Amino acid sequence: MPELPEVTALAADLDARLRGREIARMQLLAFPALKSYDPPLEALGGQRVVSVTRRGKFLDLATDGGLHLVMHLARAGWIRWRAEAPKSSGRPGSGPLAARLELDDGSGFDVTEAGTRKSLAIHVVRDPGEVPGIQRLGPDPLDDAFTLDAFRRILAARGRAQLKGVLCDQSVIAGIGNAYSDEILHLAKMSPFTPAAMSEERSAVLYAALRTTLADAVARAERVPASELKAEKKSTLRVHGRFGEPCPVCGDRIQQVIYADRTFQYCPGCQTGGKKLSDRVLDRLLK
């Protein structure tokens, strides 16, 4: 799933390509992906792009006519730029292609979504605040207003809630997902099950890990073509997606916990005092 660093890079790439350009049309090929109906998708035709920005994990394409094309790429969505007009017209249900934006010279981008679980969301609105997911967003963790004191207030308000869930909750902090929460907790040397309420010393360590992990990932992504962002992200992760591999810090074997819809990884040596966390799914299989 694209998270804050990748969506930031995608927004910057699209902004450089689209700003000031005229949209010829936006074609929808996976009809369930469109989550709004007024204004219609066709209203984007003839509009010029003013900017492309990020809001949490959402991409926000604004036009000079006051419209916003807001997209959430979910688990398996992506943006693929086309320098030329497509050789064939897209057909509804044709593979992973979900939507296609064309500029007046035929260039543009395709919105794709792999897999069978379709969660991609596309909105055309007059105000991004109309999108329910944006309405619920918490503060951006790289914003100047996201200070250590603000972070401490968030943690205190969550009380005994587990850190992993707090970091991934978009209504609490916007933009962090499964992968980067694993990386933040590993850098902070904290268990995913640590309660959110903690001492000032520990919260300072976690805050520094959060800001460092995200800022470093954003800086790396700025230099990477959009087509290579997924591979770049995967190559730099220390624990996420590396079950069974040695930890690059302490050499212990990276372990994982499987939930119904999410799997996360951690290092026992760095994060849990050598203790392996209970994994109900794996434990059941081994009985």
TrEMBL record:
<keyword id="KW-0479">Metal-binding</keyword>
<keyword id="KW-0227">DNA damage</keyword>
<dbReference type="InterPro" id="IPR015887">
    <property type="entry name" value="DNA_glyclase_Znf_dom_DNA_BS"/>
</dbReference>
<dbReference type="GO" id="GO:0008270">
    <property type="term" value="F:zinc ion binding"/>
</dbReference>
<dbReference type="GO" id="GO:0006284">
    <property type="term" value="P:base-excision repair"/>
</dbReference>
<dbReference type="GO" id="GO:0003684">
    <property type="term" value="F:damaged DNA binding"/>
</dbReference>
<keyword id="KW-0862">Zinc</keyword>
<protein>
    <submittedName>
        <fullName>Fpg/Nei family DNA glycosylase</fullName>
    </submittedName>
</protein>
<dbReference type="InterPro" id="IPR035937">
    <property type="entry name" value="FPG_N"/>
</dbReference>
<dbReference type="Pfam" id="PF01149">
    <property type="entry name" value="Fapy_DNA_glyco"/>
</dbReference>
<keyword id="KW-0326">Glycosidase</keyword>
<dbReference type="InterPro" id="IPR015886">
    <property type="entry name" value="H2TH_FPG"/>
</dbReference>
<dbReference type="GO" id="GO:0034039">
    <property type="term" value="F:8-oxo-7,8-dihydroguanine DNA N-glycosylase activity"/>
</dbReference>
<keyword id="KW-0456">Lyase</keyword>
<keyword id="KW-0378">Hydrolase</keyword>
<dbReference type="GO" id="GO:0140078">
    <property type="term" value="F:class I DNA-(apurinic or apyrimidinic site) endonuclease activity"/>
</dbReference>
<feature type="domain" description="Formamidopyrimidine-DNA glycosylase catalytic">
    <location>
        <begin position="2"/>
        <end position="120"/>
    </location>
</feature>
<dbReference type="InterPro" id="IPR000214">
    <property type="entry name" value="Znf_DNA_glyclase/AP_lyase"/>
</dbReference>
<keyword id="KW-0511">Multifunctional enzyme</keyword>
<feature type="domain" description="FPG-type">
    <location>
        <begin position="238"/>
        <end position="272"/>
    </location>
</feature>
<dbReference type="Pfam" id="PF06831">
    <property type="entry name" value="H2TH"/>
</dbReference>
<dbReference type="InterPro" id="IPR012319">
    <property type="entry name" value="FPG_cat"/>
</dbReference>
<keyword id="KW-0863">Zinc-finger</keyword>
<keyword id="KW-0238">DNA-binding</keyword>
<dbReference type="InterPro" id="IPR010979">
    <property type="entry name" value="Ribosomal_uS13-like_H2TH"/>
</dbReference>
<keyword id="KW-0234">DNA repair</keyword>
<comment type="similarity">
    <text>Belongs to the FPG family.</text>
</comment>
